[in-house]
Amino acid sequence: MTSTHSAPTQPTATRRQGWRVAVVTETYPPEVNGVAVTISRIVEGLRAQGHQVQLIRPRQAGDANRTTNDCLMRGLPIPRYPDLRMGLPATGELLRRWREARPDVVHLVTEGPLGWSALRAARRLGLPVVSDFRTNFHAYTEHYGLSWLRRPIVAYLRHLHNRTACTMVPTAALQQELAGMGFERLQVVARGVDAQRFHPGLRSGDLRREWGADDDTPVVLCVGRLAPEKNLDAVVAAWRAMAEVNPRTRLVLVGDGPDRPRLMALAPEAIFMGTQRGDALARCYASADVFAFASLTETFGNVVPEAMASGLAVLAYQHAAAGQLIEHRHNGVLAPAGDETTFLRLARTLASDPAWARHLGQQARETAQALDWQHILSGIEAQYLAAMSPSPQTSSALRPARAG
Prior knowledge:
The protein folds into two domains: about 200 residues, Glycogen Phosphorylase B (Rossmann fold); about 170 residues, Rossmann fold. It is about 40% helix and about 15% strand. It contains 16 helices and 15 strands. The protein is elongated.
């Protein structure tokens, strides 16, 4: 049960400075989720490379109080996630903007109404379009009693993505899964981690004392949205399994979401930190000992490399980022996807050998340091360049749509 922990090799773009890139996303900081964090890093990186990035996103609650050059569109709160917004259709507005200032390439980050209308506008104008597959919306349906929607959602996503020059995915495993569903022109572009921000040196004794932990108290951490699709019951079960070995083991959950009240009733002894950002989040990572992550709905899971960069031993399923970055028993431990018996057994093993857990964390840190964002940006630029110089295989995806 091993996997490579090196980032996939990316093609090298013959880059010219000053591409005009329109990035369309329905989530962006200060919203807290993996897509927002990743795309903000990409936008910053592209601008640092000299590209002109037009960021198109829904208007957020705090925009009236801050200066921004982003193109702000109408949006609505997402049901059950009032802190997140969904963009509304804006084909006419985007046609007007892009006729006045034509981008070289359009990058669709999300597949909501705003993303779909951006695709329509770009195709009418004959603009090259690339897309990301960042959220397994179809996999969420079973966690909300909506399994009957799985096939229509897959059909919608396939219909959108197959009309772009390429769809970037973070792992080869996801590439294979989507190809089996009929998705075309899939390109693996890995994700990076800021190994300077997420660093073992930020470990805080004061924070551990707030958690009721001294230097010898094992602390199990999980970071992410508190929602049914995150499989947090398995994290709680892993913590209880570790507490069988060492009753002093503490559980810390960082994040918020609709499942918080239920989880507080399920694990009243756990510490719920709520949403944390920036240095406060980095201190939470570095001040723990083991990172337990049980989600099986991630396309990647940025929290895994963040935990690795922070020097934590990671316990996860062989899925998404963990399946790509962790070599079992070398820089973390992996259970087969969905095998909770093995997941709990590995949790007990980590609890019984703290020195080994620390060694895994040290090796994880070394792995994370190789996940350089510059390499990732080069891969994205290569996909932009390919879209701007289409091959015969992508010409049908790029053909302008007829009016109406």
